[in-house]
Amino acid sequence: MKTISEAMNWRYSTKDFDPNKKISTEDFEQLKDILHLQASSINIQPWHYIIADDDAGKARIAKGAIDVFEMNKNKILDCSHVVLFCTRVHADDEYLQTLLEQEDKDGRFQDEDQKQQMHEGRKFFLGLHRFNMLDEAHWMSKQVYLSMGALLLGAAQLGIDAVPMEGLVTEKIDEEFGLCEKGYTTIGAVSLGYRSDEDYNADLPKSRLPQQTIFSKA
């Protein structure tokens, strides 16, 4: 497995996937673990992931690659797997109770008082975003982006190519999968697989601002 520095220098946004190469079941299970075990503020876990690993599933997600986003269609259809990233738009009381009971089942609390403290604390911080900052949906989507970044690094360490895409007509995908009725909406997708020999972007050097520009000492 690559070191983090090696992985970050090796990876790039893949533009052209080899449609004949598939990610192994073992490797993809590791990628699923990244998504499943991802951190989130107050453990809110607002995500839902739709995985397409066959032509039919990828075609459903590709319905969002239309109009100005047509250039993303082949990235979806030719890759091995696509992960659609969805976020909750509202964390209702029922969902908060579901989180709490799962934490209790997993042994997070020593007693009932500790369990109740967690519940009240989560409601407090959620309330700040819902009533004070008025950004509940946006705040939850930011938690989902954490998992997208982690997936890119994990894939690179396994030698799996990837490209993140916001360039989708999310209304089309939400409609295709009935997400709004379930309280979710699409924020983007990541295509995963192996680069084609024809991918022009594979040979281009990375371009980043110099470290002295982006880092400073406190």
From TrEMBL:
InterPro entries linked to this entry: NfsB-like, Nitroreductase, Nitroreductase-like
Enzyme category, top tier: oxidoreductase
Keywords, in A-Z order: NADP, Oxidoreductase
Pfam families: Nitroreductase
Any GO molecular function: oxidoreductase activity
Nitroreductase domain boundaries: 10-194
EC number: 1.-.-.-
SUPFAM superfamilies per UniProt: FMN-dependent nitroreductase-like
NCBIfam families (alphabetical): PRK11053.1
Family from the record: Belongs to the nitroreductase family.
Protein name: Oxygen-insensitive NAD(P)H nitroreductase
Species for this entry: Psychrobacter phenylpyruvicus
Gene: nfnB
